[in-house]
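Bumping my old thread because nobody answered last time. Still need a sequence for this structure:
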């Protein structure tokens, strides 16, 4: 199989979907790898590194996409890449289709087999390809929040950990999954007062044990969210429903009642965001104000630390990529239910119920199409 690795084109997206060790392993397995020139530059991986590992360096994106049977990326195709989608292509990347109906339509129209990192789920319920970037984004959310809490950046002028005699910042994390857990870890380490809100009581018990009661855990409901958010200095939105649009748990009305200069970091923005006021932003223009509340809604946060993110991501994705290359999508999906769960579009149909429901569209079970 020919595997293509294009250079990412999303704003400040400097991660890359494959590292030289992965290229070498694919070549040893009898596959050919095409890497677009400069694809790894942002992650400190040179074209020569890829060539030494056995890749063929190609000059343009069009050559990479056209020459490959299987394209592996980090982020969903951007509008400038839609024309490169074609029938028979397998695309392996973060798709986050729920809030992007136009991309869904394009994949369906062009009969692309779209395999989404974020909906690959193992038998134990884990999301192995979402986990590493959730870890990065969760930890980054507190660093970013601490930066924007400073007065020159529009925040309330708070030091997140306080000092002796002055209280630390109140950090409220909505969602106790991987991202929320990692956000809490960094916030506690910086000395903040931390509250985690989640609807799963077993998860709250687990977090209470992990943090040895150093965080406040609250059961999620409208009242709890309203009271906590109004007292917060930094809010982290870390809610996830795999494949589906994130629930809008923080309303426009609630935003208007928050303290001026409060910072919100919405990690859930890839799935539409968990605030009614959220809209995707970029690393070039990361924040906006609503009623004096600073919103940070960058949809590719981990791209700010591309070296760390690239290696963390490819550590997780490569075993699945190798299965797709060795067996082809159909056999890989039949032999590995986790890969089958990752298939969002196939042969002109949506095959992920959560995506279809979010967009009010029809869908088909993958098994009926194989």
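Sorry it took so long. Here it is:
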């Amino acid at each position: 199989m020919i595997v293509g690795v294009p250079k990412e084109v999303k704003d400040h997206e400097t991660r890359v979907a494959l590292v030289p060790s992965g290229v070498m392993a694919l070549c040893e397995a009898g596959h050919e790898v095409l890497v677009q020139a400069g694809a790894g530059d942002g992650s400190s991986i040179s074209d020569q590194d890829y060539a030494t590992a056995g890749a063929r360096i190609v000059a343009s994106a069009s050559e990479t996409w056209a020459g490959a049977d299987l394209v592996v990326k980090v982020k969903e195709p951007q509008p400038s890449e839609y024309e490169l989608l074609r029938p028979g292509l397998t695309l392996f990347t973060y798709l986050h289709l729920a809030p992007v109906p136009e991309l869904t339509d394009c994949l369906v129209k062009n009969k692309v087999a779209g395999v989404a990192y974020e909906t690959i789920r193992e038998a134990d319920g884990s999301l192995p390809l979402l986990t590493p970037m959730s870890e990065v984004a969760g930890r980054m959310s507190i660093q970013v929040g601490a930066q924007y809490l400073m007065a020159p950046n529009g925040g309330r002028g708070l030091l997140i950990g306080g000092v002796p005699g002055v209280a630390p910042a109140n950090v409220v994390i909505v969602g106790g999954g991987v991202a929320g857990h990692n956000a809490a870890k960094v916030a506690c380490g910086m000395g903040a007062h931390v509250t985690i809100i989640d609807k799963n009581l077993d998860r709250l018990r687990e977090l209470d044990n992990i943090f040895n009661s150093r965080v406040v855990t609250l059961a999620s409901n409208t009242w709890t969210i309203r009271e906590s958010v109004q007292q917060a200095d930094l809010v982290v939105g870390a809610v996830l429903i795999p494949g589906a649009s994130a629930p809008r748990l923080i309303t426009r009305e609630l935003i208007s009642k928050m303290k001026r200069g409060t910072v919100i970091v919405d990690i859930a923005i890839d799935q539409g965001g968990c605030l009614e006021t959220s809209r995707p932003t970029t690393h070039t223009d990361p924040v906006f104000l609503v009623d004096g509340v600073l919103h940070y809604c960058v949809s590719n946060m981990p791209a700010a630390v591309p070296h760390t993110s690239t290696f963390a991501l490819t550590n997780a994705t490569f075993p699945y990529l190798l299965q797709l290359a060795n067996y082809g999508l159909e056999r890989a999906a039949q032999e590995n239910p986790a890969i089958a769960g990752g298939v969002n579009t196939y042969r002109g149909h949506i095959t992920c119920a959560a995506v279809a429901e979010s967009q009010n569209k029809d869908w088909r079970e993958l098994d009926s199409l194989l």
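Residues 131-304 form a domain with the Rossmann fold fold (CATH 3.40.50.720). Let me know if any region looks off to you.
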